[in-house]
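> Could you send the UPF0223 protein H5S40_03860 prediction when you get a chance?

Sure thing. Input:
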Amino acid sequence: MNSQNYSYPLDPSWTTKEMEQVIAMFRAVEDAYEVGIDRSKVLDCYRTFKQVVPSKAEEKQLGREFEKSSGYVLYQVVKAAQESSDKKIKMVGREND
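Output:
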């Protein structure tokens, strides 16, 4: 569906399962911008993401790296999911456009 030409920021010390959980979060962010995504799915992905990346500083670092390569903003999607009462989230625009 998406024609990405970037890679996800991953920590080589994570287990395969942890990498899958982090990638699921980044894919949820992509979906929020590209096609829209259920708010509950974003929040579920974020919960499991925080189990792998409990540190706010590391979360911000990964978010910045992902934004730099993809143009998608992790923070904005999570914030929209937390604050919105809508069932579905659809972000508009990319930071790099």
